[in-house]
Amino acid sequence: SVVRAGSYTDELLKTAKTIASPGRGILAIDESNATAGKRLASIGLDNTEENRQAYRQLLLTTPGLGDYISGSILFEETLYQSTTDGKKFVDVLRDQNIVPGIKVDKGLVPLPGSNNESWCQGLDGLASRSAEYYKQGARFAKWRTVVSIPCGPSALAVKEAAWGLARYAAISQDNGLVPIVEPEILLDGDHPIERTLEVAERVWAEVFYYLAENNVVFEGILLKPSMVTPGAEHKEKASPDTIAKYTLTMLKRRVPPAVPGIMFLSGGQSEVEATLNLHAMNQSPNPWHVSFSYARALQNTVLKTWQGRPENVDAAQRALLIRAKANSLAQLGKYSA
Ligand code: 13P
Fold this sequence. Notes:
By secondary structure, the protein is of the alpha/beta class. It has helices spanning about 10-20, 35-40, 50-60, 75-80, 90-95, 125-135, 155-175, 195-215, 240-255, 270-280, 295-305, 315-330; strands spanning about 25-30, 70-75, 100-105, 110, 120, 140-145, 180-185, 220-225, 260-265, 290-295. Pathway: Carbohydrate degradation; glycolysis; D-glyceraldehyde 3-phosphate and glycerone phosphate from D-glucose: step 4/4.
């Protein structure tokens, strides 16, 4: 069994396994209030708590969601909210066998001494916040930091990102939350795919070095990597097969098989691209569950379909289920367009 003790170890392993279950992945709806405001503005709605609640209610009460979704990452506000009928969102999720999760980082700020790069806030007070989130029903956490290829990345920025993720992961496990480890390597730039591979290998090497140094239990974490692709402004796009080949090469070189699940972010890919890339990665057996933790690639059509109108809720929920099912099939390597 696992080396590090701690009262939550068994539960952590169980939570991670539940989230990494065949044919299921994560619905990420943990947009901060600022980001939620941008999404609502795109369909002409004001950024009020009422509108955020209505939108999250639409997503989380979708009938049949639990067939394809094993976990949902919430923003703090949503963790404490209920449906308009008074049922806690946490209970709505549990009734569908979906594990509630919580975004715990406090966002990015400039990193002094770096090449215009940023670092991620949120370690102060994290232990007590995590204990509170556990009491509220959360069983996993997410911390997103970023690495920019056009900005370098500098050795300082990579080290800071890796160390912050490792501290967060140890604190989460200590409080019963499975940490999702997310160093997002941004798509920005005109670099070729080989350059992304090189940076991703460097970042994940440091992340695992510090995870080990902080005695994090690898069986009780999940990863949220970016797929290895060319920069968004690179002259040629890569095919799903090429993206799968590079991404799996990187993961096999850097990620121990003890890690139960790899839950990719969509990072600005279109809905269909994100599905096709995931499908390509599941064409042969992998040492880990390879799945999704998409926000935009699950929500874009839903938002457009909803438009803030009660009469569109059913259609918007059907749109969510279509994307969720497509990604479920892609997780199983059985998607066809
Ligand atoms: P996207 O899938 O939109 O990139 O979001 C990823 C994320 O970190 C949300 O939790």
